[in-house]
């Protein structure tokens, strides 16, 4: 009861700036800044997801700021670490709202984003490009929430289609024991049901844990042709290693949230043959314009950052957000929403973005990639 009272008091403290006028707070207008808040994992077992998503976004925003900003306003991306913990994400979101940020950007994870969602809807803050494909963040429709990535239903649908086309119908699911894992399982079940199939085994791992012994025992005993994994990179890597030690010789499939490069780094040579579905353009080659621009921006930023899908997602999210600002008004949240909704059938260097006033899911693009023993990723 107390937490509910506290939550309400935070919302009440928002005042006219966030809940009524939907414009930038006075301090931000004076400083001519568009201040964004990002709650993500920057520590803990899922840290690389937040670190890379943030890195890609900052590469873009820094470029925009260096060239004069958006209509003279710079973009300031502020971060708070939630360590992939929903309670911490909720507290971070309350702080961002109380501080009067313009919008929330690039949150990482399903359980964390779901913890923020009621606050988002109550405060009417734009919530842009969360790193999650969960349907619970897409349905029911919210005017404040915008997605640039395909859903987990789209990803698992392609995975199941691929497996069945190869004659692999005994499919098991290893999933995180939370809303993310459930979202992925729901997608697998939906795709299998369309083919009069069901999983031969389902086993779980707790969020931020690598205690996979029981899950390995359960799934290996079912002798599946393939295992679809719905978890983060450390637990998925642990499962793959232990399943192989237990004699399992089948194929492992992962959805994009796993963190492709982080999974490859965790597994080393054992990554060979692991499949990951992707919802972003291939970030390692210059054959697609948006990838060339991303690689050029990464190089220009300096440092030792290497290209990967997670930072590509941050970069593309930032590009789309900037375009929404340009089309709207930099001091108006409602203007941003209108600007984003006007982006119908827009091509970002080979990646299509298609919003509408009743459709805030910009893309259904999904493809499959495979990891190599040398840490490489190929399509």
Structure description:
The protein is α/β, with parallel strands linked by helices and about 375 residues long. It has two domains: about 220 residues, 3-Layer(aba) Sandwich (Rossmann fold); about 130 residues, Response regulator (Rossmann fold), CATH 3.40.50.2300. Helix content is about 45%, strand content about 15%. A hairpin with a 2-residue loop joins β11 and β12. It is globular. The termini are far apart. The N terminus is likely disordered.
What descriptors fit this protein?
about 375 residues, alpha/beta, Rossmann fold, seven-stranded mixed β-sheet, five-stranded parallel β-sheet, 14 helices, 14 strands, globular
Strands side by side in the biggest sheet: 7-6-8-9-10-13-14
Distance between the termini: 51 Å
Shape: globular
Kindly identify the CATH topology of the largest domain: Rossmann fold
User: Cα-atom Rg, whole angstroms?
Assistant: 21 Å
Helix content estimate = 40-55%
Strand content: 15-25%
Largest sheet: 7 strands, mixed
> Would you identify the CATH architecture of the largest domain?
3-Layer(aba) Sandwich
H and E order: HHHEHEHEHEEHEHEHEHEHEHHHEEEE
Number of helices: 14
Average the pLDDT over all residues and give the rounded result: 92
Whole-number total of structural domains:
2
